[in-house]
Write a structure and sequence with these properties.
The complex is a heterodimer of chains A (112) and B (111). With 112 residues, chain A is mainly β. Chain A is built from no helices and 11 strands. In chain B, β5 (43-50) and β6 (53-57) form a beta hairpin. The chains are: A mainly beta (112), B mainly beta (111).
């Protein structure tokens, strides 16, 4: 089946690291993504990883992919109040057309 | 400079009316999408078009009719609007299966 799951809430203190986790069920994914949505705004592509990679680092962001466990994580180092948002995990499947499945989103609250 | 633009940003209308939302992308992408985000922020794909051809149609009521006049445009027409259609509708585009770029959304409220 096609399903992407992530926990709904995460609360951290400013300056700490945040780790947002995601699991997916379909192993035929081509790309896996993290999107950020701030209140009243659209989805901003934060980072993505090819399904044949294990890790990707981009400044404060680190993405880890464990294909065996079908687990994707996003680590945000030195979390700031401006990082408060909803973070969506997503995977793209090639099902004769490219289809992207989104998780329900993790609401990150950063306390000053 | 706007990559994916959709209009209008807000749409307030009465039940039973017919309305359209427009989307344009200037990224040269060949694939465009419509998503619906409900009040709990769940995001679900509705349609996907590749080079003006319908590729994905995800059990959406036939009151919703997408139209792609060219690769850079994907419009969404909704007939006989119902209360349950209230949501934020996002347009997105990509090159094939590569990362999608989203518009800012159209907030549809049905009275």
């Amino acid at each position: 089946g096609e399903d992407v799951e992530q926990s709904l809430f995460l609360s951290v203190r400013e300056g700490d690291s945040s780790v947002i986790n995601c699991t997916y069920t379909d192993s035929s994914s081509t790309y896996l993504y993290w999107y950020k949505q701030e209140p009243g705004a659209g989805l901003q592509l934060l980072t993505y990883i090819f399904s044949n990679m294990d890790m990707k680092q981009d400044q404060r962001l680190t993405v880890l992919l464990n294909k065996k466990d079908k687990h994707l994580s996003l680590r945000i180092a030195d979390t700031q109040t401006g990082d408060s948002a909803i973070y969506f995990c997503a995977e793209t499947l090639n099902t004769g057309g490219f289809k992207t499945i989104f998780g329900a989103g993790t609401r990150l609250f950063v306390k000053a | 400079d706007t990559a994916v633009s959709q209009t209008p940003k807000y749409l307030v209308t009465q039940m039973g009316n017919d309305k359209s939302i427009k989307c344009e992308q200037n990224l040269g992408h060949d694939t465009m999408y419509w998503y619906k985000q409900d009040s709990k922020k769940f995001l679900k794909i509705m349609f996907s078009y590749n080079n003006k051809e319908l590729i994905i149609n995800e059990t959406v009521p036939n009151r919703f009719s997408p139209k792609s006049p060219d690769k850079a445009h994907l419009n969404l027409h909704i007939n006989s609007l119902e209360l349950g259609d209230s949501a934020v509708y996002f347009c997105a585009s990509s090159h094939g299966g590569q990362p999608q770029h989203f518009g800012d959304g159209t907030r549809l409220s049905i009275l």
